[in-house]
Design a protein that fits this description.
30% of the residues lie in helices and 35% in strands. By secondary structure, the chain is of the alpha+beta class.
Length: 98
Amino acid sequence: MTVTTSDRHADTQRAEAAAPRPLLEVEALQTFFTTRHGVVKAVDGMSFALAPGETLAIVGESGCGKSITALSLMRLVPAISSASTRRRCEACAARTSP
């Protein structure tokens, strides 16, 4: 069987159309803390997408930013920090829509 480029393109388009939209999509999450010793980059550039029915595990060694990532997404970081991200949450939009 020979697969042509147009066949691959059509297969890719079908796969993309069938894939569910992400429930949560995070791009370039950054959370910085300003201390008397300077700026601490707790999370710098984390991106991920979570589709309906998927489970996401964030793992790493102690102090690598797992908890701050979760707190940043929930907007619960302390006031001394600055968090910046482009975040889209389909479930959140559905709950707030009339």
